[in-house]
Amino acid sequence: MQHQLTRRHILGMIALQTAATAGLTRVGLESARAAEPAAVDNAPAIVVGSGYGGAVAALRLGQAGIRTLVLEMGRLWNTAGSDGKVFCSTSAPDQRSMWFRTRTEAPLASFLWLDVVNKAITPYPGVLDRVHYDNMSVYVGRGVGGGSLVNGGMAVTPLKSYFSEQFPAVDADEMYGTYFPRARAMLGVNAVDPAWFESTEWYRFTRTSRKAAANAGLRTTFVPNVYDFGHMQREAAGTATRSALAGEVIYGNNEGKRSLDKSYLAAALGTGNVTLHTLEKVRSVSRAGDGSYLLTADRIDDSGTVVETRQYSCAYLFLGGGSVGTTELLVRARDTGTLPDLDPAVGAGWGTNGNVMLARANHVWDTVGADQATMPVMGIDDWANPDNPVFAEIAPLPMGFEHWISLYLAITKNPERASFTYDPASGTVKLGWSAAQSAVSVGMARKLFDRINLANLTIYRHDLFGSSGKVFADDFTYHPLGGCVLGRATDGYGRVKGYSRLYVTDGSLVPGNIGVNPFVTITALAERTMARVLVEDTAP
Ligand code: FAE
Fold it and tell me: Where does the record locate the signal sequence feature (predicted)?
């Protein structure tokens, strides 16, 4: 891994590890001595959520010497279960897999139309959640590290021209010169060794998809990742414990992946200024007469029972709950009157990054291999095609036997957007996404993959997304984006309109689509926000 660990990282990692071993739900630097930080009810700065946006905010606040409290609804994922592993495997999921479910809800629901994928589990604060709205569900990570715990690690920097199209008011030269490189370095982005890629059985599936794309005249491109490819090669050589080569990904990686608890969050804790409370869900935000923010948070136990409701206050509030987490909090605050001056643009501009999952059946001679690494390293890049811009990740489908399936997660340039609204009758926040809006993504994905099928004389698989024979999985997204769009619900730096000292730092800033997998963009934008805010806004 290119990234060098600093003393702060190491201290922070020890604190996280010791806190987990000691069963602490509050973590600070003192946790390195197995001491639980005292419960606090106020801090100069509070950060909600510990995904990419939250982790960047926590580190930069801590480095600036500002005492900061991070509130995360998920748990700390550093303790081994009875099987000696922190995370459960994808093929034999247990309670650790999903957030308070009695049955797993994996994206690929079936094989040969058979209901063989999902399993009964005990409700528990598991690491992957699927948040259901009408016509769309959103996969998110839950725990210290948010989405970094469950994602495929693809660390893609968007095309500069498309970034500028989506963020016309942001200085793209500064982003590509300063903040994208800063984000990549901090995240520990690295690339697969091309020679190893060409020769290893573990990426046969990718080479087969590359050939099929080339037969249709399409370009493929390598994409970097935050999984340590040195570790992966050692896994292949039998000198390291297998994780990416043992089918682990959506329910967490036990080895190899540089998730946020090993990068930004470890460094944040290492500053000594950051405390993290786990299993605490912020349910409302309001403002006191003196201008400070008041938060109400429910602390839950492993059964999901609320064991305590706590009040917090802070001068500076950073929202990093992710596109749906942050947007739901703010829509609720505006429409129930606790933050009535929020802009009407809060809740609007949400999209799925045009996500569609699909699979093709290859000819018998085009094998994909029984052995497949779970970290994607290549995409079909047809984004420059003005008639039908699509970037399709070549996704793994490790089943331990040859199945001749090529799986893809297509990112399409779907212009459709939806809004979140508060429903007073049910007290819930709803998303106005329609099936017709998903059909736009499907139309674009179909156009590209019809072309690939035609050139290769191959067909789609009809058996992987439930018993109905669905070919295009268009009812879920891995890439929720928008809801508090930069420059609309906020100013050009994520400062929320209508309120001072209130910031959004996560995926809700991105206007619905970014053309590639989004976490590098989210991280880089958060770096840009923090750099500006720490200089311009009065230090607490
Ligand atoms: P996120 O990482 O979701 O973090 C939000 C955090 O806030 C979570 O830990 C929540 O539990 C917590 N939270 C939310 N609400 C509250 C509340 N009210 N109180 C307390 N805590 C709260 O947000 N992206 C890529 O770039 N490359 C990939 O390869 C990739 N693969 C993916 C695969 C899967 C299966 C999934 C689900 C996603 C994938 N993504 C990928 C998307 C990526 O993980 C996602 O864009 C980022 O995690 C979003 O970062 P945020 O900071 O917005």
Answer: none
**Can you name the residues that pair with 27 across neighbouring β-strands?**
276
Residues with CB under 6 A from ligand 1: 48-54, 71-74, 139-142, 146-147, 150-154, 250, 281-282, 320-323, 325, 329, 478-479, 506-507, 517-519, 522
Residue 18 to residue 21: CA distance in whole angstroms: 5
Please state, as a whole number, how many other Cβ atoms lie within 10 Å of the Cβ of residue 242. Answer: 18
Question: CA 141 to CA 123: how far, in whole Å?
Answer: 16
- Distance, in Å, from the CA atom of 483 to the CA atom of 326, rounded to the nearest integer, reads 8
Does residue 4 carry a pLDDT above 80? no
- Mutation probe of ligand 1 site: the residue of 139, 300, 377, 479 with most atoms within 8 A of C-beta: 479
pLDDT at 24: 86
End-to-end C-alpha distance for the chain, whole angstroms: 36
Nearest one of 323, 280, 308, 322 to 74, comparing CA atoms? 280
Indicate whether this model's pTM tops 0.90.
yes
Domain boundaries, the chain: 7-77+258-350+481-536
Nearest to 407 by CA among 415, 398, 420: 398
Per-residue tokens: 513: 């689509």
In this prediction, residue 464 has a pLDDT band, given cuts at 50, 70 and 90, of very high
CA–centroid distance, residue 360 to ligand 1 (Å): 28
Distance CA(54)–CA(189), nearest Å, equals 19
How far is 111 from 520, CA to CA, in rounded Å? 33
Locus of tokens 């602490």: 24
Q: Which residues of 43-59 are buried (b: 16+ CB within 10 A; e: fewer)?
A: bbbbbbbbbbbbbbbbb
Phi, psi of 498 (to 5 degrees): 95, -15
Q: List Cα–Cα distances, 183 to 157, 242, 253, 393, 456, in angstroms.
A: 10, 27, 21, 21, 39
Query: Which residue owns the Cα nearest ligand 1 atom 11?
Result: 142
Ligand 1 centroid to 293 CA: how many Å? 24
Between residues 325 and 11, the one the model is more confident about: 325
Give me the chain's average pLDDT, please: 96
Residues 90-135: pLDDT tens digits? 889 999 999 999 999 999 988 888 888 999 999 999 999 999 999 9
Average pLDDT of span 169-189: 98
Q: The CATH number of 7-77+258-350+481-536 is which of 3.40.630.30, 3.10.20.30, 3.50.50.60, 2.60.40.10? A: 3.50.50.60
Residue 260: predicted pLDDT: 98
